[in-house]
Amino acid sequence: MCFSQRFAKKLLAAVADKWDSHVVIIEKISPPDWKSAPAGRILEFSILHLAMSEMVVLETRHPIVINEAVDLAKRFCDGSAPRIINGCLRTFVKDRSAAAAPKPQALELKQEVSV
Questions:
Q1: Which CATH number fits the domain that encloses residue 38?
Q2: Inside any domain, residue 14
Q3: CA 6 to CA 28: how far, in whole Å?
Q4: Is residue 1 part of a domain?
Q5: Which helix (H) or strand (E) holds 95?
Q6: Number of domains composing the chain
Q7: Of the candidates 3, 63, 52, 61, the residue with the CA atom closest to the CA atom of residue 24
Q8: Burial class (CB in 10 A: 0-12, 13-18, 19+), 84
Q9: Cα-based torsion angle of the residue sequence 106, 111, 113, 115 in order, rounded to the nearest 10 degrees
Q10: pLDDT tens column, 50-63
Q11: How far is CA 71 from CA 8, 51, 68, 86, 93, in A?
């Protein structure tokens, strides 16, 4: 099996594994008009799921993933989709980084314990 087939299988498994948690996140970060007609945005939501899964599970660097997602949107979606997908994914990365950063209070407690 070649590299691209292995990668596609891993990515598909990652999307399936993270589907429910990513649906919740996409609900928060996507624009209201996309939420009102999700059937009309199947491709856009699919691009978001693929990109989020690639960043989280396969740990591909986010600038690369966002660039590829925007390129897919430019090629296959309507005029505003690339900009919106870019914004959604940047928000996702920012929120994920903020959640992973240690809280100042937790840092203080850690310093007190180590003294």
A1: 1.10.940
A2: yes
A3: 31
A4: no
A5: helix 81-100
A6: 1
A7: 52
A8: buried
A9: -170
A10: 999 999 988 999 99
A11: 18, 12, 5, 10, 18
pLDDT tens per residue, range 60-103: 999 999 999 999 999 999 888 999 999 999 999 999 888 887 66
Cα–Cα distance between 102 and 50 in angstroms, integer?
28
- Amino acid identity for residue 26 in this structure: I
The tokens of 2 are what? 């070649």
Amino acid at 100: A
30: containing domain: 8-114
Q: Is residue 47 part of a domain?
A: yes
In a domain, 107, yes or no: yes
Question: Which residue is it, tokens 């430019």?
Answer: 74
